[in-house]
Design a protein that fits this description.
The chain has 9 helices and 17 strands. By secondary structure, the chain is α/β, with parallel strands linked by helices.
Length: 362
């Protein structure tokens, strides 16, 4: 075994995870590649061509790279666990009037657990992924995630739920590199096709990013169950009918199919009455929020108020705030109002570049 140890690398077949695997291989780790099959489009009732990390082409690309560099590669079928947890939660959250965060759940409960379980069987001390983030052990004995060098690619937001136990065995080789540098590395490896591979920003199991069609496929008779609900204003005035509450998200403006003489946004979803509340942009503003299922990363507990930058969505720039522990919840008090807080999405707290933790908005 290598002096640096044996490491299991999650390989999707994309440029990031491929370069991560080669980088670790060249550093002297004994690399084993693993591609996880989480989903196939046939299960979604679509005729779309499979793309992304679950496609046969991507699996073959990962295997070919591993063979070329002389390290083992395995395929792990986790479609059952993925579907039972991530997809069922995705559907349940929309039916509850919330906007889910499937990538966070997948990382926290599926991918890391599957990787570490297989790592143990293969006597791997570490696991690695192609996420753009950094990790370090600090003086208080806790492993801390911090933002990747490339602000445009930073993925720390979707990693807030990973446990300390799992972080202790995790490496992020790409954290100190920009995406452009990773593509250049792929070219230097002679992997021109890989270097130019396009990226997908869609949810891996939602064909063509059409979550409404996906919900209709997964829930028999959904349209009949939810069609014809009311649009109302904040004061309760009925102003029209919508297509069904699961097909809307907080902050949505386009696709409402109603004209009220001024820009209107979805400000609240009431699944129990199949009602969607519309309001002005000002009515989307909030000065505070609560989060549940909190996982703290940098500190073991919040014993006093902490000033933090809070992101309420992946591409959010973040807002200055104060976070306070209140029983099982964390309260966020924003210095200035924020817009479009969507229950079900993640609120993630930062101290500088360090990830303090996160939770799901309620």
């Amino acid at each position: 075994m290598s002096k640096l140890g044996r490491i299991l690398v999650a390989m999707s077949g994309g440029v990031d995870s491929s370069v991560a695997a080669v980088m670790l291989h060249e550093q002297g780790y004994e690399v084993i590649g693993l591609t996880m099959k989480t989903w196939d489009y046939a299960s979604s009732g679509t005729s779309s061509k499979e793309t992304g990390c679950c496609s046969l082409d991507s699996i073959n690309d990962a295997r070919a790279l591993a063979v070329g560099y002389g390290f083992p590669h395995y395929i792990l079928d986790i479609r059952s666990e993925f579907g039972d947890f991530v997809i069922d939660n995705f559907v349940d959250e929309y039916l509850a009037g919330r906007t889910p965060n499937p990538c966070v759940l997948c990382n926290t409960h599926i991918k890391w657990e599957a990787l570490l379980k297989r790592a143990d069987k293969l006597d791997c001390e570490f696991i690695a992924t192609g996420h753009y983030a950094n990790i370090r052990l600090q003086d208080n004995g806790r492993y801390v995630i911090s933002k990747g060098k490339d602000e445009n690619k930073d993925q720390s937001y979707v990693l807030w739920g990973v446990s300390q136990e799992n972080l202790a065995r995790t490496k992020f080789p790409l954290g100190s590199f920009a995406k452009t540098e990773i593509r250049e590395m792929a070219k230097e490896m002679g992997q021109l096709e890989l270097a130019n591979k396009s990226e997908s920003y869609e949810i891996c199991f939602v064909p063509e990013n059409d979550y409404r069609s996906f919900l209709r496929h997964k829930v028999e008779g959904l349209d009949e169950k939810v069609a014809g609900g009311n649009y109302i204003l904040t004061d309760g005035t009925v102003v029209g009918q919508h297509q069904g509450y699961p097909f809307y998200t907080i902050g949505q403006r386009k696709g409402l199919g109603i004209a009220l003489g001024q820009p209107m946004f979805v400000t609240k979803i009431m699944p129990e009455s199949n009602t969607v509340v519309l309001g002005t942009q000002e009515e989307l503003h909030r000065s505070s929020a609560y989060v549940r299922n909190v996982n703290l990363v940098k500190y073991g507990s919040i014993t006093e108020p902490i000033e933090a930058i809070t992101k309420i969505r992946y591409k959010d720039a973040g807002a200055q705030s104060t976070i306070v522990q209140e029983n099982d919840l964390v309260k966020i008090d924003f210095d200035h109002v924020v817009s479009g807080i969507a229950p079900g999405q993640s609120a993630v707290f930062y101290e500088g570049n360090d990830l303090l933790g996160g939770g799901f908005l309620i």
